[in-house]
């Protein structure tokens, strides 16, 4: 049967309390050494007995160094806590002030748009009117300034467009000059070709003769003979072959 859980309370027996202190102190020092070695931690342990005797343990660094580090950390943590508490106190004080400012601004906005004017006195209404007139003057001044800036910008754009238009017109004129020169050159070339073709005409081709042995000669010409068979006085070229003459007759 396992041992039950021991209730933690002061041991009344003085001897038993001393024995338990010695055992637990040794175990506590052993555990402190183990955690410093296993976890590479800086450990400082201070124990005072009931008689006021001191028992301590520290890692390789000295006890004073660990205590100084503890004090710096504790002081910084206390300062941070104090700062947070001061900020909380300041916020708690600032909240009502900010809330009242918000309410005042909302009321002024309602007055500026013409709402909730009944509770206002004559002096407050005059002050409100003066504020509105001042605001209107500022608005008109800013509006005129914006209009002048817009007009100036448009004028600059107009000048830039005018310059661009002039450049395009100049380029167009140059292209028209080039086209007119090319057109006149083509016309001159065409007229030269026409003149040359009118001056030099090709020779007409000779008409081929349908007679064999030369054309017909007139009556009484040299080399002709008369057909004596009553051929109507037709003359036949003597240079024609006889078989062709017979065929013709």
Automatic annotation (TrEMBL):
Main location as per UniProt: nucleus
Subcellular location: Nucleus
UniProt entry tagged with the keyword Membrane: no
Coiled coil feature spans: 122-189
Reported function: Probable transcription factor.
Residue ranges of every copy of the K-box domain listed in the record: 88-178
Protein name: Uncharacterized protein
GO molecular function: DNA binding
GO CC, any one term: nucleus
